[in-house]
Amino acid sequence: MSFADFISLGPLITLFTAVVISMLLIAFKRNHRITYVFSLLAYLMALTAIIPAMLYIPHTVPPLLVVDEFSLFNTGLVLTSGLIILLLSYNYFEEREERKEEYYLLLPLATTGALVLVVSRHFMSLFLGLEILSISLYGLIAYLRARERSDEAGIKYLILAALSSAFLLFGMALVYAFTGHMDFPGIGAALRQAGYIPVTVLAGFGMMLIGIGFKLGVVPFHMWAPDIYEGAPLPVSAFIATISKGGMLVVLIRFYVDIHGNDYSMIWWMLAIVAVASMFVGNWLALTQQNIKRILAYSSIAHMGYILVAFLSGVQTGLEAISFYLVAYFITSIGAFGVLIVMSSSIQDAETLDDYRSMFWRYPWVATVFTAMLLSLAGIPLTAGFIGKFYIVMAGVNGHMWFLLFMLVINSVIGLYYYIRIIAMMFKSLATGEVTYIKPSLPVAGNITLMLLTLLLVGLGIYPTAMMQLIQQMMKMIV
Amino acid sequence: MILLLLILIPLAGALLSWIAASRNVLWSRCIALASLLVNLVIVGQIWATHAATGGQWIYQYKADWVPHFGISLNLAMDGLSLLMLVLTFFLGALSVLISWKEINQRVGFFHFNLLFVLTGITGVFLTMDLFLFYFFWEMMLIPMYFLIGIWGHERREYAANKFFIFTQAGGLLMLLAILALYFIHGANTGVYTYDYFSLLHTPMQQDTARWLMLGFLIAFLVKLPAVPFHTWLPDAHTEAPTAGSVILAGLLLKTGAYGILRLVLPLFPEAAAHYAPWIMFLGVLGIIYGGMLAYAQNDLKRLIAYTSVSHMGFVLVGAFSFNTLAYEGVVMQMIAHGISTGALFIIAGALYERIHTRNIQDMGGLWSKVPVMGSATMIFVMASLGLPGLGNFVAEFLILLGSWQADRWITVFATIGLVVATAYSLRIMQKVFFGPSHQQYALPDLNKRELVIIVALVAAILLLGLHPQPVLNTSQKTDYVVR
């Protein structure tokens, strides 16, 4: 391993080393606060490690990994999101669980898995990253052992993730059998040379889609999402909604670009059907839910559908749109889960719609944040979500995807209904009579984090130029 | 710069009045009123000094926003925008005044939303950048949703949701059309921009133009509203608080009409002409159908809401007649309808405050108890049915004159609408103020604050009817599409 390799993979190595040290730390002395602060420092150091890594880009670590602007940007995104989720976690676990320290091993470990995905350009590293991520998630989802739903969710995820990994492996084997390559550019070159996609490879892609689609939570591989969002501890749900999906999406983009996916209409059609189905199923099933975690789960299914529309547009703008949308979606989702975390009491999570009744008059500040997050999910101006959705539609128009765009428009309207239903619930006037409201914990750190997220959300909504320029420049490099 | 100020003042007022409300509710009201009055004075000043002179554009302002996409903060004011802004701030200030006693809960947030809607409307009337247009267009939805959903009457949530979903659906179609126009222009000329002036005269195929025009048109037809997209309107207008109804009827509907005049006709003249007979037919349908439905209503606010559908039908007929007479009429109708319908909503609100019902079957014989309110209602009812001497007469007369040149049968049927208008307007007077009184209400007449509001409105509608020339002169400065 050369010095340049070492520096380029700095963020990954830092975080991974930190996990090992923190394990020793826990063995030495169990203390929630110390472990927490150490993990925070680890994330911050990993983030700073990006700066020297920028000197060497683009840098390939053959044959497994590649560090270019695209992967560094996403590394930053994943690490920042991880840091924010960590900030929101402390109070949540402090109130709930006796043995809380191991959470701070699993979370950075899962983040490491996502980081590996972000830099991978080879089936091996893809699978490695995926498994690091998945296996840590089994533990994270079932972390609150005392809760029945938590256990159920953990086992459900374990079985389904293992099954989908098996599909993914089989798919990879089929692709390898024909092309003789496991690195993405090699596969792309081999396919281009062949000039067509033989049935084996197509079957391979189909099976890989099952594995990838499961992680992304797109229809028809979405069944797990609502149950696991509902059962998992809230910070973990936020992690699954953002980092786990984002990491997978980044690999998917790299794979698709490297194999020139746009040239093969079969692949396009497979993804198009998945996109339309995700939008409709996600939005449709969210309409009648009473549980906010489930609503967010279905809404994230629909949002993956929107992202796929940009993906399928086949133009440069599409990839930019995905990156921007991911940033907006990360901020918004973490913000929304953050509100749920802040509003939850030590006895129960604030998850039913009724818990949020007339919240605006009881906790105006948190309700404002939640409103902003929901409006961003719905794509209303002054929020990052609006610019993101605008970017996606723009990519679609640019690529003449009229059918997909009409589906997107119809779905945006359907989606609007359940977002404003939550908002309307928060604005209902105080009910008279015997009502026991949930007693939220409202930790200070959580509130500050939420404030920062809101500022970021509105900032990106009003002045998106800087972020757009960054993304545009980085996308020029990979295509 | 002054144009940017016109947008920023109500925005600042919105934030300040929200903050101030936590200390003193009265300050909040005063700040809201003051910021709108300042703007009213500014636009009044502009009207007085610049209206008669110079070219089409009185002021222009341009600054980069997202240069990467060709989005700029591009504002401009011509005669049409100027008139719409005068109406906006006039009705806006009155809306604050009528809420003085009606809104007692969460006053700060109420004024925040009220001023925020007005900011959005101001932006729509001023911007010459299509992205920004869509931005402001969407921006007015949320605060309006809150205004209806929080301070409305019994079925407020249903109405608010319906309003939001209808307008948002239309808006998204417009977004698709805007983006398509952007890329077509970019592909043909190499310049990717949302600038209105550049996008005018974009060369494109006939079919494409027609599809794009429909994208824009549907958004505006929903907002206007035209049959069959009107069903959100009676619910929203009925359930909204008085100030909300005034802003909805007086201003929000006008953004639809403004969009047709500013975007649909100039951007796609050929396509608009192609569909003109059908759209005029929709207009006439609205005039008659809206009028008939209005006649059948027992809820006073719902009745007034349906009259809006009927009156906006005239706007549609006029706008697609493609001649100057009709355009003058349309602009006049937008203003006169804003004032007369706004006034009727204010009176309905005042009545509701006193007797807590909107059902006209429970009213009757109120004239002897509230003669001042009765005579004020009489004036606006007469305006609504198109009595000469009041603003609406001038408007509808000009529209019919213009549309006669375009399509005679359409005009004939539109004229039937005037008869229907007479029927429903007189029914209001008959049921509410005359006839036997079913219940013995003890109710006070208009107080000083209400009197100020009503007098201002009466003066405006009389001035429009008796001396319409200044308005017509100003509106002539706008360059309409004539064939």
UniProtKB/TrEMBL annotation, chain A:
NADH:quinone oxidoreductase/Mrp antiporter transmembrane domain segment(s): 120-415
InterPro entries: NADH-Q_OxRdtase_suN/2 (IPR010096), ND/Mrp_TM (IPR001750)
EC class of the enzyme, as a word: translocase
Reactions catalysed according to its record: a quinone + NADH + 5 H(+)(in) = a quinol + NAD(+) + 4 H(+)(out)
Predominant location category: membrane
Places the protein is found: Cell membrane; Endomembrane system; Membrane
Bilayer topology: Multi-pass membrane protein
UniProt EC number: 7.1.1.-
The UniProt record lists the keyword Protease: no
Transmembrane annotation, as ranges: 6-28, 40-58, 70-91, 103-120, 126-145, 157-179, 199-224, 236-255, 267-288, 295-316, 322-342, 363-387, 399-420, 441-463
Secretion signal span: none
UniProt KW keywords: Cell membrane, Membrane, NAD, Quinone, Translocase, Transmembrane, Transmembrane helix, Transport
Keyword Amino-acid biosynthesis among UniProt keywords: no
Assembly and oligomerization: NDH-1 is composed of 14 different subunits. Subunits NuoA, H, J, K, L, M, N constitute the membrane sector of the complex.
Family: Belongs to the complex I subunit 2 family.
PANTHER family: NADH DEHYDROGENASE
Function: NDH-1 shuttles electrons from NADH, via FMN and iron-sulfur (Fe-S) centers, to quinones in the respiratory chain. The immediate electron acceptor for the enzyme in this species is believed to be a menaquinone. Couples the redox reaction to proton translocation (for every two electrons transferred, four hydrogen ions are translocated across the cytoplasmic membrane), and thus conserves the redox energy in a proton gradient.
Protein name listed in UniProt: NADH-quinone oxidoreductase subunit N
Gene symbol of the encoding locus: nuoN
Automatic annotation (TrEMBL), chain B:
Top enzyme class: oxidoreductase
Domain NADH:quinone oxidoreductase/Mrp antiporter transmembrane positions: 128-416
Topology versus the membrane: Multi-pass membrane protein
TM spans (from-to): 80-100, 107-126, 132-151, 163-184, 211-233, 245-269, 275-296, 303-322, 334-352, 372-390, 410-429, 450-467
Coiled-coil ranges (or none): none
GO molecular function, one term: oxidoreductase activity
InterPro entries in alphabetical order: NADH_Q_OxRdtase_chainM/4, NADH_UbQ_OxRdtase, ND/Mrp_TM
Cellular compartment(s): Endomembrane system; Membrane
EC number: 1.6.5.11
Source species, domain of life: Bacteria
Keyword set, alphabetical order: Membrane, Oxidoreductase, Transmembrane, Transmembrane helix
PANTHER family membership: NADH-UBIQUINONE OXIDOREDUCTASE CHAIN 4
Family, as annotated: Belongs to the complex I subunit 4 family.
Identification of the protein by name: NADH-quinone oxidoreductase subunit M
Organism expressing this protein natively: Chitinophaga qingshengii
Taxonomic placement: Bacteria, Pseudomonadati, Bacteroidota, Chitinophagia, Chitinophagales
